[in-house]
């Protein structure tokens, strides 16, 4: 399969753009092969299987084999593949290792069954599943409240070293995190304390900030650390509003996968926290009819600010594309902002949303709808719980700035409906320039704006006629 792929005889499949090509997946006694549903593709497959049989002495059982097709394969090509290989065709998503072979767009539905099963098993856990050693500790959980509090304090104190060992810091004011002794750089990298001799005045992360300004001192960072480490540091987002540093406990994987022995109290705490995580996954975005493939104008006197971000991974740069329109789909302004030291596309989207809020405040708008196609970012902004992800700085600042409006709501829309903001961001990243256009958008984006405006005018005219008829 590998040689056939290198010789361009088979094309394989990709899970996304830029990903490696997958030609086959090997399991214990099964193999899933990916290829093109054509006369050439199926004959190459047959030649490969024939050669495999000759070399290994093992024959493929075609009667137990099944072929699946993507939705864009026509009936003629399907029949050709089935006849040449002599296998059965199935449109039913059969299960393999507990999960369907074909997932498609129903990922949430597929994995919901897995989550429900896991949660049910955890709920059914009983003390009899633990060894005598674990029972001894687990029974302590059932003591009265006062004894529980005392024991919990002792356990936490005894486990202090273990917890700190697995702690990964999110930077707030930088006053509680040691530059040399804590894990605060992305990738769980901890700096060698011997390097502290380079600059003895540097102790806390806050020492790397510019004086009285919430941003990194780039010259200091680049002169103190290697180029690779400096790049990682400068990509860490800083909130413009002061808040304390907080730690993320990254020891959970060891608890699950490395079979480390923990006390009953630690197990109970872990299970409780994990169930809360499962419950949070059930929180979904509000049902909204705007989940369509087209943009809809805001109602009344509200302004709609759409945002999107284009990201260049090689240069760690992004461009935020912003556009503000009213209920008649008329453009108030459009803007592109070039951002440097952006670690991920996820962070680029969060920063774009923050800059959309900032633009609305600068223009003195009172009632706004902030809309984008970054589902996770919108969900975090809609939630009331404190965010502790890597974009927490942007989420905190966005929530606090949004309070300055008289009315502000965060809305999600599909990628196709956010075409105007997407094109503005893409063009801005190509030209690498900051722009602000009053009452218009870049020339290349005008057709998309006009299409939204014509559709809005037609819909409003239809509604007026409908109201007139009812009268």
UniProtKB/TrEMBL annotation:
It holds the Pfam family RVT_3. Gene3D superfamilies: Ribonuclease H-like superfamily/Ribonuclease H. InterPro entries: RNase_H-like_dom_plant, RNase_H-like_EbsB-rel, RNaseH-like_sf, RNaseH_domain, RNaseH_sf. One of its GO terms (molecular function) is RNA-directed DNA polymerase activity. SUPFAM superfamilies: Ribonuclease H-like. Keywords: Nucleotidyltransferase, RNA-directed DNA polymerase, Transferase. Residues 306-427 form the RNase H type-1 domain. This is Reverse transcriptase.
